[in-house]
Every structure is written in structure tokens, then in C-alpha cells.
Design brief:
Structural class: alpha+beta
Number of strands: 39
Shape: elongated
Keywords: Disulfide bond, Glycoprotein, Membrane, Receptor, Repeat, Signal, Transmembrane, Transmembrane helix
Low-confidence stretches: 1-21, 567-577, 585-622, 624-705
GO molecular function, one term: cytokine binding
Number of domains: 7
Pfam family, one: fn3
Number of helices: 11
Strand order of the largest sheet: 1-6-5-8-9-2
Organism: Knipowitschia caucasica
Protein name: Fibronectin type-III domain-containing protein
Mean pLDDT: 77
Helix content: 10-25%
Bound molecules: 2-acetamido-2-deoxy-beta-D-glucopyranose
């Protein structure tokens, strides 16, 4: 400082400010030009313990580089100077009660030096803010903001001001004052960007409150991303690991900065890992556990509504290590899970997860085990009887702690197994029972499985009960067939033709047999030679024949031999009878031929069809297809023209009806003719038409005569 010292004759004019008597100061800077571009500014700030620190700041002047600055300050008669300053700010010490004048000179020794002056009253120079940090959150047209002030000044700042400007074509400026550090502005246009500035509110401790820079508040994200695709595939090499790829999209693509993805086990076991990505896709390596994924778009002021997606447990469970994994239930609050002891060579960290099937609440236990290949779990919530539980055993590679650190790629599933605390019997029968491909001796029974919730145990199989349906013989033995649990159809064989059968079906578990289905009734197809029916028909025919014969005999007896003592010995009677019979037969033949060749019969036939709709239905259907809905009562189906039993009818009432009609074709031609002749006045079209039934394959008895 020799130069300056000699110039100004100052004592102690060294590297620290020294107070000097200004009258003795030498200010050889008059030749320097004033340069307002220096923006010389001096102020105080709170620095803790109620103290303030003062400093001056400035910008460089005209000279391009290697500038040195000289700072002079004056407070009344007290002056000070600091030379050779290479930075653009300087801390100073001042008297707080005296006005301050500061002079800055750039490159004092140069002919091209510049200078700037600052004047102020220290009490007006205490500066607070702007905030060091501000955070914003937009939602539902609201902007929430939080400001953080410098540590030592925050106790002096009571309120703050907010200025926000719309960024559309028309700029509107709004201002608001908030108490404390948080504020809320409502009624904003969600789709609009805003510009925001913040400053503290002036008070005696903070006499200066400069505005912050402008924060740009982008639009609010309001739409939930939509899932495009979720794909689960097995890991190509690692067993028990799934590759899960999720892709999604959103319409607000231009407003966002990226997506947050949260992945957590559905059981609630930590951790809850957050990933962020700017892509609309993520790929994860997960175990067979159930997971919950949350996806939302974000920008720096808002987060969109969340898309939540569950990743279900692996479903191909029974094939996965079920043979290596066992659960032994001890009581309703305790069970032991046991696994292959070889697993201990590779893993010591395990996780057991169990839940009631189709329920989302999953419980878990993760543990370290290096001795036993089993683990007894004590439950806080007791197991429910008759409910199916699903248990998974997962392995974790990390040795130190068995807690999961990352959901991605750090767990694999060893196996899964289902268990019951207590098994029960099925409370509902198989549904959707139908009868197909009915023949005279067999039929195919098909059904849909019992809903799993109704099983109440592991289904071991189905029991099919069938029995001849007959009101005459109620003691008919019930036959029983057992089929495996995987089966949903069964061929009932060795049935009697043209016979009605009752069928019931139920499932069974280890606990026993479940509820039987409603009785289904079907009839096997009738064969050409139906033993039972034929016998009945012959019987009826014989009676009719007898009646006819009797009346003929009586008439003859009365006309020819009114007082013949022993007609049995006469050949004449027999001859006459024979000739009469032949005559009648001839008559009948002519009549029949006439009938067959007239349209009249056809008309009659149609009428008959109308009068016995159920029979016609039965005939017109071929023995190929039949089904009974559970809700149909046998009787109802029988009486309905759309009867489901193509091969027959099973109520006695029905059977009798049939018999009535069938009795006619079962007669001999002669007997029929006799009937027609005798009851000519009462003959109904349907009765005269009885011959048509002979064309029925079902009731065709003509072949027997
Ligand atoms: C000015 O300061 C610099 C370093 O800050 C130093 O190297 C230089 O010697 C000083 N000049 C004078 C004249 O004291
Ligand atoms: C002073 O400024 C003039 C013109 O602006 C320039 O020519 C000259 O070199 C400068 N002198 C110094 C020492 O920088
Ligand atoms: C938000 O991000 C945008 C750029 O995406 C940026 O211009 C703006 O200043 C940021 N606003 C805040 C409040 O961080
Ligand atoms: C997103 O993740 C990257 C790296 O994982 C991180 O640097 C960044 O801060 C995250 N962004 C947000 C908004 O969390
Ligand atoms: C999950 O882990 C796999 C394999 O280490 C990796 O390829 C994938 O990028 C990871 N996913 C995330 C979201 O980190
Ligand atoms: C579990 O394993 C230990 C050690 O191998 C054995 O002593 C114990 O009997 C096992 N417990 C059960 C319930 O299997
Ligand atoms: C479970 O309970 C039994 C007795 O109630 C106890 O001996 C055992 O240590 C418990 N096991 C655990 C893992 O808490
Ligand atoms: C019925 O028979 C047909 C032809 O023989 C066959 O294709 C069909 O599968 C059978 N239906 C049932 C249920 O067995
Ligand atoms: C009944 O069977 C039909 C045809 O086989 C099937 O489409 C339907 O889903 C079944 N209903 C039930 C309840 O299983």
C-alpha cells in the first residue's frame, strides 16, 4: 500500500478497514468516472445471536478483466478504506446509528477507473429473503406453497407476499399476503401455467424484502394414466421369478416430467419401492407374491391421480413345488410349514405368505433359518374352518438381514400349497347338469364343477347316483358311480331301454359327501322290442279280442241256436263264426284301403296331432339330445310341450295317457274294426285315426302282430 499510503498519507491503511479522520483522508479518485452499472449495494443480514453482518456487493465496470477494487466508507467523520479487492463483494463493519456512504472504485490506479457511490441509513438496510427454497403443489385448482427462509432470519419474518401472474395471452397479476410459511391460493385455472414471486413482508427487523426470482408453475396434472398392457412371463432361467412388464399412457403427456411408480407387496410387507421413469413402461423381476403397483404422472408442481393395479399371485400354483412343500396345521392358531432340506444349502432367508383364497388380505412372516427345514408359525388371527388357504414360500438371497430391501429382483418363490384348517363337505351340488347322447342303454351326464367357495375342502371326486324311476317299484336299487375330481362328465351305461331314471350327483371331500343335486329324470330310448310294454299291449289286446269274440258268440247263439243245448259240439257254429269273421276281416280291409286312399284320413291325422301335443313332441324328437335344467321339476318338464325328456315321460299319469292311446294300435285289425262299427256314433276323429300311431317308431306295435 505504499503507493496509496504516499498518495493519501494515511496511517494503517492496510488490509483491514481502519477508522480514520476523514479530513485527513486523501481521496484521489476524482478523475474516475461514475458508473451506475456497478450496482453498488450495501445491506445487513441477520447472522444469529441477534447480530447482523454487513456487506457491499457490486458488478464489474467497463474494464474487461483483472479488476481490483478499492472501497471507501464514511460515517460522519469516520472513514475507512480497503484496497486491492479482487472479488465483487466485501464485508464491512459499520456504526449502526450513523448514515453510511460507500464509494467503490474499480482500478483506482488506471486512467480508465470507474466509481460508484452508495448511501443509506443502516436501519433501512436490514435485508430478509428471498426464500432459499419454495415448494409448490397444485391440485383441484388450488396452489399450496411452502417457503423456507434463511436459518437466521426466519424468526424475524412474520408474513410473506405472493405475486402470481397468468401466463396466457392476457397477463393478469394478483397479489396475496400470507401469515407464516405456508399459503394457499384457490380458484386457479388448472390447465394454465403461472409465474410466481415471493417476498417477505417488511417489518422493523426486516426493512428490506426483495422479490424472489419468478417460479414457473406448470399446469396441474388431472388425469389418471391408463394401463395399456401388463404382461407376466416366467423368467427364462430362474425358477419362481416372473418378468412383469407394465405399459401405460396418459393424455397429458406435454405437461409432465415423468412417472412415479410404487411397487409393494400386497401383504403390506416393506419396502415400498419408488421408481421414477420418463418412459411409459417399466419392467420388474418379481416373485410369485401378489404386488400392488401405483402409477402416477408428475411434474414439479403436481401429481396426477393414481392408477392402481394389482399383480396377482402366480396361478399355476399346484404344479409349483407342491410336492416339496407341506403344511401341517396344529391348531387354529398354529401351523408348520416344511420344505426340502436341500434348500438350506442355498438360502437362509425365507418368507412365508398365506391368505384365504380369493381374499386380498395376506399375512406374512420373514425369517432366518439355517438348521431346520421347517418353521412353525403362530398366528394372531385364527384360521377359519372350511376355508381354503394358500401358502407361498419365498427365498431371499441376502444373508445379513432377511428383510426385503428391494422388491425388484431380490426374491424368488420356492413353491405354494393349499391347505384347510378343517375340511367340510360341499354345500352345493355340481351345477349345469345335462344329459346328452341318450341311447337305449346309455347316456352322457355332464356338469360344471362346484364353486370353490362351496367345496369347503379338497374335492376328491363326484358321486353319481341313479335309479330306475318307477312308481310301481319304489324299492329299485340305487346305483352309485364314483368319478375323479377332474372329471366333469360320465357315461352311464347298462341302462334298460325305454326306462325312466332318476339321477343325482354330489361332490365329496375327505370330510364326506356333499349336497346332492336336484333329481334329474331322463328316459332311455325305446327299442323296437320293448319287453314290458309289449306284454302290456298283448294283454290289453287279448282282453279286447275276448270281449269281441264273446259278443259275436252271444249274437250267433241268439239268432241261430236260441235253444241249443250244447253248442260246443256243433261244427256249424264254428263254421259260421269263421265265415263271419272272414267277412268282417274283408270289410275291414276294404275300409282300410279306402281310408288310406282318401285325404280324409290325413285331415283326421292333423287333428289328432293337435289333440295330443306332448305325444307328438315326443315322437318328433329323435333320441339324441336332452337336457334338464336344475330348476325344472320333472312334472313340469313332462307336461310342457317342449318336454326335455325326448325319450319319454315318467309320471304315471303320463304313462296312463299313453296307454290309452296306445291300446288302439295294439288291437288286432279286427278288433279295431269292431270298435269302430260298434261305437260309430261316438267315434272321435282322433280315435278313428289310431292307425297313424303305427307309423311311430316309439309305439309301433304292428310288427308284433
Ligand atoms: C493484491 O492482492 C493480491 C492477492 O489478492 C496480491 O497477490 C497482490 O500482491 C496484492 N497487491 C498489492 C499491491 O498489495
Ligand atoms: C483506457 O481506455 C481507452 C479507451 O477506452 C483505451 O484505449 C486504453 O487502453 C485504456 N487504458 C487502460 C490502461 O486500460
Ligand atoms: C418446473 O419445471 C419447469 C420445466 O419443466 C421449469 O421451467 C419450472 O421453473 C419449474 N418450476 C418449479 C416451481 O420448480
Ligand atoms: C427420479 O429418479 C432419479 C434417479 O433415480 C433421481 O435422480 C430423481 O431425483 C428422481 N426424480 C424424482 C422427481 O423423484
Ligand atoms: C428390475 O431388475 C431387472 C433385473 O435386474 C432390471 O432389468 C430392471 O430394469 C429393474 N427394474 C427397475 C424398475 O429398476
Ligand atoms: C423341524 O425340524 C427340526 C430339525 O430338523 C425337527 O427336529 C423337528 O421335528 C421338525 N418339526 C416338524 C414339525 O417337522
Ligand atoms: C409359538 O407358540 C409356541 C407355544 O404357544 C411357542 O413354543 C413357540 O415358540 C411359538 N413360536 C413362535 C415362532 O413364536
Ligand atoms: C355325443 O355324441 C357325439 C357324436 O358321437 C360326440 O361328438 C359328442 O362329444 C357326444 N357328447 C358327449 C357329451 O359325450
Ligand atoms: C353351463 O354350461 C355351459 C355350456 O357348457 C357353459 O357355457 C356355462 O358357463 C355353464 N355354467 C356354469 C354356471 O358353469
Amino acid at each position: 500500500m505504499s503507493t496509496l499510503g504516499s498518495l493519501c498519507n494515511l496511517t494503517n491503511f492496510l488490509s483491514i478497514f481502519t477508522l480514520v479522520n476523514c479530513s485527513t483522508s486523501c481521496m484521489k479518485y476524482e478523475h474516475c468516472k461514475f458508473y451506475p452499472g456497478h450496482h453498488l449495494d450495501c445491506f445487513g443480514r441477520w447472522v444469529g445471536n441477534g447480530k447482523k453482518q454487513w456487506r457491499c456487493e457490486w458488478e464489474p465496470g467497463t474494464s474487461a478483466h483483472r479488476n481490483t477494487y478499492t472501497l471507501f466508507k464514511q460515517q460522519g467523520e469516520y472513514c475507512g478504506a480497503k484496497d486491492n479487492i479482487s472479488s465483487q463483494n466485501k464485508e464491512i463493519t459499520i456504526f449502526q446509528k450513523r448514515d453510511l456512504t460507500v464509494l467503490l472504485v474499480e482500478n483506482l490506479k488506471s486512467p480508465n477507473c470507474t466509481k460508484a457511490v452508495f448511501k443509506g441509513t443502516p436501519t433501512d438496510l436490514v435485508r430478509c429473503g428471498p426464500p432459499t427454497q419454495s415448494s409448490f403443489l397444485r391440485h383441484s385448482g388450488i396452489l399450496d406453497l411452502n417457503v423456507v427462509w434463511m436459518k437466521h432470519e426466519e424468526r424475524y419474518i412474520k408474513d410473506f407476499n405472493l405475486k402470481y401472474t397468468t401466463m396466457g395471452e392476457e397477463r393478469k397479476v394478483y397479489a396475496k399476503l400470507f401469515k407464516g410459511k405456508n399459503g394457499r391460493v384457490d380458484g386457479l385455472d388448472s390447465s394454465q401455467s403461472y409465474m410466481v414471486q415471493i417476498k417477505c413482508d417488511r417489518n422493523s427487523d426486516c426493512s428490506q424484502c426483495p422479490w424472489s426470482h419468478s417460479y414457473i408453475i406448470p399446469p396441474e396434472l388431472k388425469t389418471k394414466p391408463t394401463l395399456i398392457h401388463l404382461e407376466k412371463t416366467n423368467h427364462p432361467t430362474a425358477k419362481g421369478i416372473r418378468l412383469v412388464t407394465i405399459t401405460w399412457q396418459t393424455v397429458e403427456i406435454d405437461k409432465l416430467d415423468g412417472y412415479f411408480i410404487n411397487v409393494q407387496k400386497a401383504s403390506g410387507e416393506p419396502p415400498k419401492n419408488q421408481f421414477n421413469t420418463s418412459e411409459g413402461a417399466i419392467s420388474l423381476h418379481l416373485s410369485c407374491s401378489a404386488f400392488t403397483v401405483h402409477i402416477s404422472a408428475f411434474n414439479n408442481v403436481s401429481v396426477s391421480p393414481v392408477l392402481t393395479r394389482n399383480i396377482e399371485n402366480c396361478d399355476a400354483v399346484t404344479s409349483m413345488g407342491a410336492e416339496r412343500l407341506h403344511v401341517t396345521v396344529h391348531s387354529k392358531t398354529s401351523f408348520t410349514v416344511q420344505w426340502d432340506s436341500q434348500l438350506l444349502d442355498s438360502y437362509n432367508c425365507y418368507s412365508v405368505e398365506w391368505s384365504r383364497k380369493n381374499q386380498h388380505k395376506t399375512e406374512y412372516l420373514s425369517f432366518f433359518e439355517d438348521v431346520a427345514s421347517n418353521k412353525t408359525v403362530n398366528l394372531t388371527e385364527s384360521l377359519k374352518p372350511y376355508k381354503r388357504y394358500m401358502l407361498y414360500l419365498h427365498t431371499r438371497p441376502k444373508k445379513e438381514t432377511c428383510e426385503l430391501k428391494h422388491v425388484n429382483g431380490s426374491e424368488s418363490t420356492y413353491g405354494s400349497v393349499q391347505f384347510y384348517y378343517k375340511e367340510g363337505t360341499p354345500i352345493s351340488p355340481p351345477t349345469n347338469i345335462s344329459y346328452n347322447n341318450v341311447t337305449s342303454s346309455s347316456l352322457v351326464l355332464t356338469w360344471s364343477p362346484i364353486p370353490e367357495d362351496d367345496l369347503r375342502g379338497f374335492l376328491l371326486g363326484y358321486i353319481i347316483y341313479y335309479k330306475e324311476y318307477s312308481s310301481r317299484d319304489t324299492s329299485a336299487a340305487e346305483k352309485v358311480a364314483y368319478v375323479g375330481a377332474e372329471t366333469t362328465s360320465y357315461v352311464i351305461e347298462d341302462l334298460k331301454p325305454g326306462t325312466g331314471y332318476n339321477v343325482e350327483i354330489s361332490g365329496f371331500t375327505r370330510a364326506g359327501t356333499g349336497v346332492r343335486s336336484i333329481k334329474g329324470i331322463f328316459q332311455t330310448c325305446t327299442q323296437v322290442y320293448m319287453k314290458d310294454t309289449v306284454i302290456i299291449m298283448i294283454f290289453v289286446a287279448a282282453i279286447v279280442l275276448l270281449v269281441v269274440a264273446c259278443s259275436i258268440v252271444k249274437r250267433m247263439k241268439a239268432v241261430l241256436w236260441p235253444s241249443l243245448p250244447n253248442p260246443e259240439n256243433s261244427n256249424a257254429i264254428q263254421k259260421m263264426e269263421n265265415s263271419r269273421e272272414i267277412e268282417q276281416l274283408k270289410m275291414l280291409q276294404t275300409l282300410q284301403v279306402e281310408e288310406w286312399h282318401t285325404n280324409e284320413l290325413l285331415i283326421i291325422k292333423e287333428q289328432a296331432t293337435v289333440s295330443v301335443p306332448h305325444l307328438v313332441t315326443a315322437e318328433s324328437k329323435v333320441c339324441t339330445r336332452a337336457s334338464v335344467r336344475d330348476s325344472d321339476t320333472p312334472l313340469k318338464s313332462l307336461l310342457s310341450p317342449q318336454t326335455a325328456f325326448t325319450c319319454g315321460y315318467t309320471t304315471m299319469e303320463m304313462f296312463q295317457q299313453l296307454l290309452t292311446f296306445q291300446s288302439s294300435p295294439s288291437m288286432t285289425q279286427k278288433a279295431r274294426e269292431r270298435l269302430i262299427q260298434d261305437d260309430v256314433g261316438e267315434t272321435k276323429p282322433g280315435q278313428s285315426d289310431v292307425g297313424q300311431f303305427s307309423s311311430s317308431s316309439l309305439f309301433d306295435l304292428s310288427t308284433t302282430f
